[in-house]
Design a protein that fits this description.
CATH architecture of the largest domain: 3-Layer(aba) Sandwich
Strand order of the largest sheet: 1-2-6-3-7-15
Oligomer: single chain
Keywords: Cobalt, Hydrolase, Metal-binding, Zinc
InterPro entries: ArgE/DapE, Bact_exopeptidase_dim_dom, Peptidase_M20, Peptidase_M20_dimer, Peptidase_M20A
Radius of gyration: 25 Å
Strand content: 15-25%
Pfam family, one: Peptidase_M20
EC number: 3.5.1.18
CATH topology of the largest domain: Aminopeptidase
CATH class of the largest domain: Alpha Beta
Protein name: Succinyl-diaminopimelate desuccinylase
Shape: elongated
Low-confidence stretches: 1-6, 436-441
Structural class: alpha/beta
Bound molecules: zinc ion
Largest sheet: 6 strands, mixed
Number of strands: 16
Length: 441
């Protein structure tokens, strides 16, 4: 990567090829939205992969359909399908992989339009997944097709994938593909994930996450004589108090060098996802009276998001330290802690080739400097980093993150066009090197 994108004579033709494809981009986005790929349970993955397979083969890609057999949720009723397409250039060079997830989250209440209708209203396409991330997927396909139409004599290769299950952790999607070598640095050199981070931002990575269940124990007794038992909920109250007194202030004081947006996520954070102790909650409509028991168990689930400067071990040790402190000082206190899930933080260097290239293309297309950001929540970059061992990866795509998972989700057509332009120019910069003497990777 040795030249600015504006150095290429291919750009006027590329702009024309993109402009010609505006209606195609709209239709493609609508088609993708109209295949409801709800996760859970993981519906219509095969249908959307077949659609992408047809589309990309027509554009000259070789395609593979890969079912992530045996991954969480995979069954004959809900198979975890992925599609990976590759188009070789005319000579050796780098491979640029554009990867998008095909699944969408639950619709939820509050919609004023059909969530799977793909309505085009005032330059916006509406539907579940419009911004997260079928709009980004469509923009990446149009970008690649416009590039191929104008620059057929390119070096290296382009890959486009549609992957399953990002919304439930990506184990049946990018993680599965990474385990099978699809993101090894020998095969792929640059990855762009068109998540909806905004058309003027390059997202370098995301925080880590550690989920755990903590249980406190007690002793069951009659509710009229709680002194004969030991209330596990009161013990949990002591845990929550220790979190308030020590953990939350300590986390809030910790600041990361990562450019996480929004600002509040630049510290360590923790959510308490759930709490339950004692008898099961009464079913709706039940008229039965509760029985009187001292609870012998109370459980919470915590969702601790951590910074690139922290480690899983330090996160775990900090919480275990508080619990052990209670064990040493509070009569009859005992606990169990069980890890439920973990994802590493991931951060690409802003000088990495793909980050610099996309930022330069943003400046070209939008006429202003790109903003480098990081995401508060994780996305598929973690698998590309940890399993694939590939560091040269960013998220870049159209749409506003705030709209993801909301009612009346939409993506702007102009935003998709601008993002497609940025992606296409990035392909020019990475696959039409003006200096063929670059050192190999
Ligand atoms: Zn997403």
């Amino acid at each position: 990567m040795t030249h600015a994108p504006d150095a290429s004579p291919a750009l006027p033709a590329l702009s024309a090829a993109l402009a010609e494809r505006r209606d195609d981009l709209i239709a493609l986005t609508q088609d993708l939205i109209r295949i409801p790929t709800l996760n859970p349970p993981g519906e219509n993955y095969r249908e959307i992969c077949d659609y992408l397979d047809r589309r990309l083969r027509t554009s000259g890609f070789e395609t593979q359909m890969i079912r992530a057999e045996g991954t969480p949720g995979d069954s004959d009723r809900y198979p975890r399908w992925n599609v990976v397409a590759r188009r070789e250039g005319t000579r050796p060079g780098d491979c640029v992989h554009l990867t998008s997830h095909i699944d969408v989250v639950d619709v939820g209440a509050g919609w004023t339009v059909d969530p799977f209708g793909g309505a085009l209203i005032d330059g916006r396409i509406y539907g579940r997944g419009a911004c997260d991330m079928k709009g980004g997927l469509a923009a990446s396909i149009i970008a690649a097709e416009a590039f191929l139409a104008t620059c057929p004599d390119f070096a290296g290769a382009i890959e486009i994938s549609g992957t399953a299950d990002e919304e439930s952790g990506g184990y049946g999607g990018v993680a599965y593909l990474a385990e099978r070598g699809f993101f090894s640095p020998q095969k792929v050199q640059h990855v762009i994930i068109p998540e909806p981070l905004q058309k003027d931002r390059v997202c370098l990575g995301h925080r880590g996450g550690w989920w755990a269940e903590i249980e406190t124990f007690g002793e069951i007794a009659h509710g009229s004589m709680p002194f004969l038992g030991d209330c596990a909920v009161r013990h949990m109250g002591a845990v929550l108090q220790a979190f308030e007194d020590k953990l939350f202030p300590a986390m809030a004081a910790r600041r990361t060098e990562m450019p996480v947006v929004p600002e509040g996520a630049r510290s360590s954070t923790m959510n308490i996802n759930s709490i339950h102790g004692g008898q099961a909650e009464r079913l709706a409509g039940s008229t039965a009276l509760p029985s009187h028991c001292v609870p012998d168990s109370c459980r919470i689930v915590i969702d601790r998001r951590y910074l690139v400067e922290e480690t899983r071990d330090s996160v775990k040790a900090e919480i275990a330290g508080l619990l052990d402190g209670l064990k040493a000082t509070r009569p009859n206190f005992d606990y169990a802690m069980k890890e439920l899930n973990h994802v590493i933080p991931s951060m690409t260097d802003r000088d990495a080739p793909v980050a610099r290239t996309v930022a330069a293309a943003i400046a070209e297309v939008l006429g202003r400097e790109a903003e480098f950001v990081a995401s508060p929540g994780s996305y598929d970059q973690k698998h590309i980093d940890r399993i694939g061992k590939l560091k040269n990866c960013v998220a870049y795509g159209p749409g506003l993150l705030e709209l993801a998972h909301m009612p009346d989700e939409y993506v702007g057509v102009d935003d998709m066009m601008d993002s497609a332009d940025v992606m296409a120019r990035s392909l020019v910069a990475l696959l039409l090197p003006t200096d063929e003497t670059r050192p190999p990777h």
